[in-house]
Every structure is written in structure tokens, then in C-alpha cells.
TrEMBL record:
Topological relation to the membrane, as annotated: Multi-pass membrane protein
Organism: Yanghanlia caeni
Subcellular location: Cell membrane
Name of the protein: MFS transporter
PROSITE patterns: MFS (PS50850), TAT (PS51318)
Major facilitator superfamily (MFS) profile domain ranges (all copies): 12-400
Protein's UniProt keywords contain Ligase: no
Length: 406
């Protein structure tokens, strides 16, 4: 491969990361708008939790099927189609102001997001040399916190001068621009990804790919671990604007405070890539991340320490917790039964992640309502973290046994 080709491939990989960030903006555009939507639509806390998590319905149901379809129709085509769906659904959502219709278009946006997020790890794997893969994948794993911090800060500003419909339309325009950029810079799908060429080449059938993916214990453990992490992170970050609003911290200030917490997650994601590159054991990084999240959630929600200490704790929760998703993305590629099942493996990981993100906010809201305050939040998130630790330990055992038989 020439230097020019290598640079083009690297630029394409960075473009894909930017596309992921743009897609993440749609997932996280709701939290800064949630206080005003609660007032406009008369939502209670549990209904607000479902409004936060409804966007995960597509991922919860369709993660593996979309991962499978992406391999058939072409990874690049799938990404571009997902961006088109996000553009259309975000613009169309501004035409309605009822809870049901907002939830419907949020669900459609979730499907579009999934079509973007599923194929990117496989595309990056094709574009980036193996020696650099862990570092680039750690950058990709930052797409969600990057998008989160951008929309929480910029969205809070936009909502201070305009309504939520303006924010939705602005993101539709941005997504259309990113779609055109990806169409221009990301290489086209290889002929082998077309259904006819694949059948001629004797590639695995859809059923075989599903069986290979779901028949792997390692795939299940990685995916379920990601689900326990996602349930915690979306619950904490998603409800922070509401918590700040209840405490009298409104608008741009709440957006900046929440954005800094979300942005801290990038530190852990990038650190994980470096640590894995230097040979740190994935299991230790995951367990350390979960233990830190338990301790910091307790300090943040379960104590009456000064507000500055509690804020430092929630920032640390996000930062150290960021070790987990980056490590799991790399592990997902490692445990995929074959190169051809990488996308379906990531699809199953996303499906379990979406399940966690769908379940997490309503569970936390239910516990808060049951106990009468946010101080019990750490009990719900801590339960998810303990489950994640158990899954991570089992994953480490499976990986060691697999390495011993090689």
C-alpha cells in the first residue's frame, strides 16, 4: 500500500468516526430538551425515562439483523442509508408535538443510528493496519461521549434561544452534510459484499453467520457486559439535566455541567486504547472501571458531601468508566468467530447495549420514585455494575482458555 493510499484510508477512518459523532448527536439531543418537554407534555419521571430510552428500541430488537443486513447490502451503503434515515426522521419529528409521535420518530432515529454504528468497526478494520487497530478503535469508542458533550453544551445554548424543533432541524441539516462527506471520502463497498458475488464466492449464509455469532460464549459475555455499562452511563448522564433543573440550575449552566461529565468519558476511552496497546489485561480494565463507577455513584448520590465533591465524583465515574466501552469494542473484534462475523458480533453487542440503555433509565426512575429521592440512584447503578463485574470475570476466563488451546 502506498503512502497516499494509507493517508486516504486514515482520512476515511477519521471521517467514519465523525459520522458516528454526528449520529450520536441524535441520541443525546433529548436530555437538554427534557425539562421543557416535561413541562410541555406533562410527563412524569418514569415517562421521561421511557422517552429517553425509546430511541434504543431499534437497537434492542434489530441489532443483529441490521448487522447481518449490512454485510449483505454493503457496509458503506448501510452507513449512508442510516444517515439518510436520521436526516429524514429528525426533520419530520418537528411536525408533531405529541408524546406518541415524538416517541415514534425517536424510534425511527434509533434504527437510523444503528445502521450507522453497526458497520463502522468493520469498515475501520478494513482500512486500518492491525498494529494501529486498538488505538483507532479507542478513538471510535469515543464517538458517543464526543457527540454527547457537543449536543449537551450546544443543545442547551440552542434551546436557550429557540425551541426544540429548531434543534431537530439543525441536526437534520448537519447530518445531511455529513452524509455527503462520507459518500465522497469513504471508499465504496468491495464487489464481494454484494449478495451475488458473495454467493458465488461461497461465503457463509445468513443463518450460518447468526449461528456462529450467537454460538460464541465470548460474544455473549462481551455484549452483556456492554449492556450493564450502558444502563448505568445513560441513566446518570441522561437524568443529570433533570437533576440540575430540580436543584435550580437551569439552561446553559446545566448543559455545560452535564457536558463536562459526558466529555470526561473520552479520557477513559482514549486511555484504554493506550493501555491495551501496552499489554494491560482487558479484564482488569473492565473490573477497575466498574468498581470505580460503584464508588463514585455512591459519593455522588448516596452522600451529603459538598456539591463540589459530588460533582468531582460524577466526573470521575464517567472518566474511569470510559475504560469499559473502548476495551469491549476491541474485545468484540477479538471474540468474533471470524472476520465475516465482525459486523454481526458488533450488532449483537449493540443490541445488548441498547437493551441496557432501554432498561436503565426507567429502572433508575422507578427506584428513585420508590425511595423518594435521587439519593438511591447508586443502588440501581451499583447493581448493574456488580453484574458487569461478574460477566467480565467470566469473559476473562473464557479468553484465557481460548488462548491456552491455540
Amino acid at each position: 500500500m502506498s503512502c497516499d493510499e494509507s493517508r486516504r484510508d486514515l482520512l476515511a477512518a477519521f471521517t467514519l468516526v465523525a459520522v458516528g459523532v454526528c449520529a450520536a448527536l441524535h441520541i443525546w439531543k433529548l436530555p437538554p430538551a427534557l425539562p421543557s418537554l416535561q413541562a410541555q407534555l406533562g410527563l412524569d419521571l418514569v415517562q421521561s425515562g421511557f422517552l429517553l430510552s425509546i430511541v434504543q428500541i431499534g437497537g434492542m430488537i434489530l441489532g443483529l439483523p441490521i448487522g447481518l443486513a449490512a454485510e449483505r447490502i454493503g457496509l458503506r451503503r448501510c452507513v449512508l442509508a442510516g444517515m439518510a434515515i436520521l436526516t429524514t426522521a429528525s426533520a419530520a419529528g418537528t411536525l408533531f408535538d405529541t408524546t406518541g409521535m415524538i416517541m415514534l420518530f425517536r424510534g425511527i432515529e434509533g434504527c437510523g443510528f444503528l445502521m450507522v454504528a453497526m458497520p463502522v468497526p468493520s469498515l475501520i478494520r478494513r482500512l486500518v493496519p492491525p498494529a494501529s487497530l486498538s488505538r483507532v478503535m479507542s478513538l471510535w469508542s469515543c464517538y458517543m461521549p464526543f457527540g454527547t458533550v457537543l449536543i449537551l453544551i450546544a443543545g442547551a445554548w440552542a434551546l436557550s434561544v429557540a425551541g426544540w424543533q429548531t434543534l431537530w432541524l439543525g441536526l437534520a441539516g448537519l447530518t445531511l452534510a455529513m452524509l455527503l462527506l462520507a459518500w465522497r471520502l469513504v471508499p465504496g463497498d468491495a464487489p464481494a459484499t454484494a449478495p451475488h458475488a458473495r454467493s458465488v464466492a461461497g461465503g457463509p449464509s445468513a443463518l450460518q453467520m447468526v449461528r456462529l455469532t450467537l454460538g460464541s460464549k465470548g460474544v455473549w459475555l462481551v455484549a452483556l457486559t456492554f449492556g450493564t455499562y450502558s444502563a448505568q452511563w445513560i441513566s446518570v448522564i441522561g437524568f443529570l439535566p433533570t437533576i440540575y433543573s430540580a436543584a435550580g440550575i437551569l439552561g446553559k449552566v446545566a448543559g455545560v455541567l452535564t457536558g463536562l461529565v459526558a466529555g470526561a468519558n473520552i479520557i477513559g476511552n482514549l486511555a484504554a486504547g493506550q493501555l491495551l496497546h501496552r499489554g494491560f489485561a482487558p479484564q482488569r480494565l473492565i473490573v477497575f472501571g466498574f468498581l470505580t463507577m460503584i464508588g463514585c455513584a455512591f459519593v455522588t448520590f448516596g452522600t451529603t458531601l459538598p456539591a463540589g465533591v459530588q460533582y468531582a465524583a460524577v466526573v470521575t465515574l464517567s472518566a474511569v468508566g470510559g475504560l469499559i466501552p473502548a476495551t469491549l469494542f476491541v474485545q468484540a473484534i477479538a471474540v468474533a468467530p471470524s472476520a465475516q462475523t465482525t459486523t454481526t458480533t458488533v450488532g449483537w453487542l449493540q443490541q445488548c447495549s441498547s437493551l441496557g440503555q432501554f432498561v436503565g433509565p426507567p429502572v433508575v426512575a422507578w427506584v428513585v420514585n420508590l425511595t423518594g429521592g435521587w439519593q438511591s440512584t447508586w443502588l440501581a447503578t451499583g447493581a448493574f455494575a456488580l453484574a458487569g463485574i461478574g460477566l467480565a470475570l467470566a469473559l476473562g476466563s473464557v479468553r484465557r482458555r481460548a488462548a491456552a488451546t491455540v
